Amino acid sequence: SGKVIIITNEEGERQIPCVLSYLDGEEYHGSQAKAQLIRNSKNTITYFKNFFGKKIECASLHISGYSAEPNILDNEIVYTIISGSGNEYEKRIITLNEVMISHLKYLKNCAVEYIGKDVTDSVFSIPPDFSSSQIELLKKCAEKAGLNILQVIKEPVAEILAYSDGVDSLVLADKIFVVADFGEMTSSATVVVCRNGLYTILATETDYNLGGRLLDDCLIEYFVKEFQKKYNLDPKQDLRAMAKLRTECETTKKSLSSSSVCTISVECMFGGYDFYSSINRVRFEMLGRYVFNKMLALVKNVLKKAQTENFDIDEVILAGGSSHIPKILEMFGYIFPEKTLIRTQSSQTSMLSPSDIECYGTAIQASLISSLDKEDISDLINPNITLIPHLLNPIGIVIQSDDKTEFIPIIHSYTVNADGFHVTVRDN
């Protein structure tokens, strides 16, 4: 029917966390793995996507403290998984690449079970700062997982494609976009220009320690102080108590996106005490003020990096799970003029969820190339086509100081033809 349908796993989830957990020889993925953080944290691997294909020094960026810690072995990032207990236990070393392969196999199996037939070809969306070596490594891991990658597209471009009406109207429109993607642990802002149907990334800025998790931390700190004040006990002494509180704080944060007040309940949190409390959206926004300011600064930095001004931007697209938070839309309304269209679910300019649009746009791109053979696809992704320089200033003519005609707009791709007709009148 030409309609994009985002499939689900066996639990009905469309967003599957990049989390793996190992327990008694079994491998768990997604939300099932995330639930293991409470009782099986040391065998649960989180945020592995952030380190994929990067230098080993990046392992030091892991800040969870409540999950398996990455280590370095033979110049590779690895995790140590322990099976058994007491004197009878077994250690297993698993590399980061093996974790990625397992995750991709799981995603493939979910697709196979949903549609009822084998899946071999795929289109991947990748972070805007992904290097060529990371892309090659991803292709190798996908191949070992039984997937052939036909094409990779940058996440911001996929998120722009998600808002197309029948694709043609968006592809042909000359616009400058800002795509702000605020995830759980990573945030990025990208300036993308569309000229003559070609998308070019002018600048991108990524912060691997900025996202919804920091807002969870703000809530955790707030409720820990409440617990300490009420019971004169410090739950930070117990990792399980903090894992339970983190899970509930994440749920509370999501609820505050649609409700002005939310309650929190943690059974047997610490010292035998149950914990109950509530928080309103205004308090939450005050607690997370410095996080929201960092998100806004990320966007301002990328505008400066791309040598563009806020009034140059035609559309802003908010993506990622943290973009559900109303405060983020409110802040963007302060820095962009009224003519700039801000697309997000809470702005009522779209019914698409910010959590879904990357997947949605990638599916659209896959449908566009599904009828092409491999040679045609190779031609489409040739660097001579995809990497095109752009004008930094518009081109036009000036007859008099107050008589200017612009033929070619700013940030237009080479090569371009433009025709114009200009009539001048001087001295009657």
Describe the structure.
The radius of gyration is 25 Å and the shape is globular. Helix 4 (155-161) crosses helix 11 (357-369) and helix 6 crosses helix 7. Among the domains are: 19-100, Defensin A-like (2-Layer Sandwich); 391-428, no CATH class. The longest helix is centred in the N-terminal third of the chain and has 20 residues, at 96-115. Helices cover 34% and strands 26% of the residues. With 428 residues, the chain is an alpha+beta fold. It has helices at residues 30-35, 96-115, 132-144, 155-161, 168-171, 212-231, 239-255, 281-287, 289-305, 326-335, 357-369, 374-380, 383-386; strands at residues 19-23, 26-29, 44-46, 71-73, 76-85, 88-95, 121-126, 148-154, 175-182, 187-195, 198-207, 261-270, 273-280, 315-319, 341-343, 395-400, 403-408. The chain is built from 13 helices and 17 strands. GO terms for molecular function: ATP binding; ATP-dependent protein folding chaperone. Pfam families: HSP70 (PF00012). One of its GO terms (cellular component) is nucleus.
List keywords for this structure.
13 helices; 428 residues; Defensin A-like; single chain; three-stranded antiparallel beta sheet
Largest sheet: 5 strands, mixed
CATH architectural type of the domain at 19-100: 2-Layer Sandwich
* Quaternary structure of the protein: single chain
Tally of helical runs: 13
CA radius of gyration: 25 Å
Portion in beta strands: 25-35%
Average of the residue pLDDT scores: 85
Categorize the overall geometry: globular
Helix content: 25-40%
Low-pLDDT segments, ≥5 res = 166-171
Helix and strand element order: EEHEEEEHEHEHHEEEHHEEHHEHEHHHEE
* End-to-end separation: 63 Å
Spatially, the strands of the biggest sheet line up as 11-10-9-14-15
CATH level-3 fold name of the domain at 19-100: Defensin A-like
CATH class of the domain at 19-100: Alpha Beta
Number of strands: 17
Secondary-structure-based class equals alpha+beta
